[in-house]
């Protein structure tokens, strides 16, 4: 195939300007969304009113709900000094957790991206790195991160080098990940037991049906056999009375 011509200096400058423009837009989006979200939190506004404002910012910048969720995660964490982050989140998330969770509509994929957002946050703000496991646990308890998303993240970063940030975070999260894995295994065992119970329950109606069928057959035999026998006795009795009357008439 023919070789493409090298870009001119002017084209390279235009490309760099385009990239810078996109970065500026992304920066303004993050700043405006963070301000909107935090203003609602600090002002004690209703969640539904803040959600309307967040949607307005999202559509103004042509962003996705996931973009909003990632910006909101960063905002609510960085709003507090590291030592106060976890206690503050535990107070805020009962109210604001559902608003955050709505931004991750595609649960497994979006929530996995949320975990990577937290990883990126502690990478760029190392002072929060020691709180990474508790951040995962806190957002998991608030139903913002799923068990599947956290375990998937752990599997994906397990191949990283031993001296990497991912390896450090994975080691820190080991107790939480072990607890999640054990809980996941128990859920699978419960599901298997439920399936076995359903199979047994599925067999019981058949057995019950057999008993009912036998009882129904017996009832039908009683009805079909007893009723005709009684019906036959009535003519027999009537015949005896007629014979006695005839005998009396003959004697007379």
Could you list some keywords that capture this structure?
252 residues, 0% strand, globular, mainly alpha, disordered C terminus
Question: What does this protein structure show overall?
Answer:
- The protein has helices spanning 9-42, 47-60, 65-78, 82-101, 107-124, 132-141, 147-157, 165-172, 174-251.
- With 252 residues, the chain is mainly alpha-helical.
- The longest helix is centred in the C-terminal third of the chain and has 78 residues, at 174-251.
- The radius of gyration is 38 Å and the shape is globular.
- The model is unreliable at 206-212 and 225-252 (pLDDT under 50).
The biggest sheet, with number of strands, parallel, antiparallel or mixed sense and barrel status, is:
none
Structural class: mainly alpha
Overall 3D form? globular
Q: Helix-strand pattern, N to C?
A: HHHHHHHHH
Percent range for helical residues? over 70%
Please work out how many helical segments DSSP would assign.
9
Strand content: under 5%
- Based on CA atoms alone, the radius of gyration comes out at 38 Å
The average pLDDT score comes to 80
First-to-last CA distance: 136 Å
- Low-pLDDT regions: 206-212, 225-252
Topology, number of strands: 0
